[in-house]
Known about the structure:
Residues 813-840 are annotated as: Disordered. It is a single-pass type I membrane protein. Belongs to the RLP family. It is found in: Cell membrane. Its main location: membrane. By secondary structure, the protein is an alpha/beta fold. Among the domains are: 268-427, Alpha-Beta Horseshoe (Leucine-rich repeat, LRR (right-handed beta-alpha superhelix)); 837-883. It is 11% helix and 19% strand. The chain is built from twelve helices and 51 strands. The protein has a 21-stranded parallel β-sheet, covered by helices on one side. The chain has a six-stranded parallel β-sheet with strand order 29-31-33-35-37-39, with no helix packed on it. A five-stranded mixed β-sheet has the order 2-3-5-6-8, with no helix packed on it. A hairpin with a 6-residue loop joins strand 2 (80-82) and strand 3. The chain is globular. 46% of the residues are buried.
Amino acid sequence: xxxxxxxxxxxxxxxxxxxxxxxxxxxxxxxxxxxxxxxxxxxxxxxxxxxxxxxxxxxxxxxxxxxxxxxxxxxxxxxxxxxxxxxxxxxxxxxxxxxxxxxxxxxxxxxxxxxxxxxxxxxxxxxxxxxxxxxxxxxxxxxxxxxxxxxxxxxxxxxxxxxxxxxxxxxxxxxxxxxxxxxxxxxxxxxxxxxxxxxxxxxxxxxxxxxxxxxxxxxxxxxxxxxxxxxxxxxxxxxxxxxxxxxxxxxxxxxxxxxxxxxxxxxxxxxxxxxxxxxxxxxxxxxxxxxxxxxxxxxxxxxxxxxxxxxxxxxxxxxxxxxxxxxxxxxxxxxxxxxxxxxxxxxxxxxxxxxxxxxxxxxxxxxxxxxxxxxxxxxxxxxxxxxxxxxxxxxxxxxxxxxxxxxxxxxxxxxxxxxxxxxxxxxxxxxxxxxxxxxxxxxxxxxxxxxxxxxxxxxxxxxxxxxxxxxxxxxxxxxxxxxxxxxxxxxxxxxxxxxxxxxxxxxxxxxxxxxxxxxxxxxxxxxxxxxxxxxxxxxxxxxxxxxxxxxxxxxxxxxxxxxxxxxxxxxxxxxxxxxxxxxxxxxxxxxxxxxxxxxxxxxxxxxxxxxxxxxxxxxxxxxxxxxxxxxxxxxxxxxxxxxxxxxxxxxxxxxxxxxxxxxxxxxxxxxxxxxxxxxxxxxxxxxxxxxxxxxxxxxxxxxxxxxxxxxxxxxxxxxxxxxxxxxxxxxxxxxxxxxxxxxxxxxxxxxxxxxxxxxxxxxxxxxxxxxxxxxxxxxxxxxxxxxxxxxxxxxxxxxxxxxxxxxxxxxxxxxxxxxxxxxxxxxxxxxxxxxxxxxxxxxxxxxxxxxxxxxxxxxxxxxxxxxxxxxxxxxxxxxxxxxxxxxxxxxxxxxxxxxxxxxxxxxxx
Length: 909
């Protein structure tokens, strides 16, 4: 669509894309705001009240609007700023809190048009439910600043916004518009693509179109126009830009101050020509596919204060990167982020970088020790070298001069902190990640002085001690606490938890008593609760109504008793979030709650094994269409297996290899809206005779139903044959009768089938011969009869696998079927599917499996699961290995890996 535009409209378009990301509109452009003596215009006050009627204000953001003491003077209302005289509303700042859910929602009333002098409108971080931006916003003749960042708008951007003739800045990032990509909603003329339009705007100062689905820039747009000399900010993160954009950026090399191209598709080397941008202060190329090192020219950018290259494919020695930046850039550089790359070598001495405040070198291949010279960086605020291969000791010498330090991350290394018991730190840390470092055996006393902590992770640090009394009353600022995998002792009920915790994990310790104190976490932001593997007891308190953002709940491996509290499934927010429930290995009694199926519709994993549950399996469980693992084993459940198990549609669909459980096909707007969590990675622990194997991200491949060791009766429903991706089915040690479903051979992915110790009768279905099971098939102690179907694998099982079925005949059993002649030795069945190779591969796999497991997660997992994907014989051998360990799936445990907080210099203030 094209329109004829006059000179006035052209000037409008020049100003239209003056994006100022996260700008506080109160700075610099309002001549004054109302004081106590200014009274607003009555017509405008009534317009605001009418506007409020259309909004839903769950958090009382607008409680001051129309309150008794301020009823007449709207200039005192929150978010309303007026001119001094005669009190016209100039600014309406209703920006929500991005950490809360839906601060404001509802509809925008056109009554705002009565605010004729309105120059700034900010509705960012609210939730307008995918509604379209109202066309009437294009009628504000004096509007200069419009901010709709992450406000859940959708549809098309109205062309009426082109009528905002005085507009200077606008930010519409991170919404769900469907006509942003080519900017045709802005343009009144034909253009190649979005860059073509931008090139025609010589007065543009700030371009901010993050998360707007912008396609790669067209090469033809590089040479046709006179480029703006005033463009200072280009923020195009989370789009589809490739390396072609570099050449376009070089046209603005004398003016650009900030470039943000994070989360795009940049590849290859960083161009050396970017070092000619002599005004550049901030460069962010995070989360791309850039390779090699950084250009030597970067050391000559004397204005460079922030360089962020995290999560790329950069390689080389760290000391080489530091040497490159040792030109005049060393005097200005304040933030350096090289994390999540392939950088090697030891940590160099940064002592010449006098301005350095933030260092991120985590998740590389760094070795060596932490140099003592790090203590000379007196400005240092953030220090992160996590997830490397560093070793050695960190003492007071490293830390005593770092008085500005507020974030310390040494986790996932082989470092030991040896700090004097009487040492008093010069800093107040807010973020502490020391997981897998050596802190114990005593509880670190220096933590007693850190009363501003918001994140504390001292998991797996070798502490074997009682929780000290001073730690029982946790700082009110604490939001994230992980002390798991230690040997901590104490009464859990004595710990006083802050109300606004988001994560609490005390798993794998020796805590005792009840957990009633956890109900004091009432801030509504708890999303992860793991109390598993302790000595906790009593009933589960019925306080789940406090935890509207809960995603992970693991209470397994304790001594809890009583019934499962009903509040677990009574919350609307909880219903769309909670995906993993493990209450296994406790002493819960009563029936399996039917409300689980009604109240937790997106549940992926349900583990209630090893309890004292009774009654029948409620049919409501069949409503859990996203369920991938159902474990009700080792209980006293009776009755029939529901015929509606075919409703477990996730077990009929191929697993999402990359997304795993949390990244399933089901999406909702709240799935990643839990406070402090930017990335969610799921783990699973499969316990086999004392050996633990850890998986990450790939639990989605496992589709499991385990109903073993109960008192189930009736037939095995034929509907279960529709779960085509089922990998494990265990219904052993029940009282099931009747025939094995004829269509069970449809389960081609089935690797482990245990139906032993039931009372199945008649023949084994011929379709089972088409399924490549693991080598041990559980058909012991039934009333099966007839000939064992001939196939590629059934004849390779041991006769012991069919023990107790006296009327069965044919190989591998010694008794011949009626009418069969004794075959010659040369006529014995052969394995046409390479079972001999499978057996050899099984031995090879088992030896190699344990060797690989010792090299850590990355090597271990890919060493195991990579071949399993591509080599069928090894895949069979793997499940043979699992099957040969009786009841191989004892428990599954999902955990969370928190992406480390990345502090951006531009947000420091």
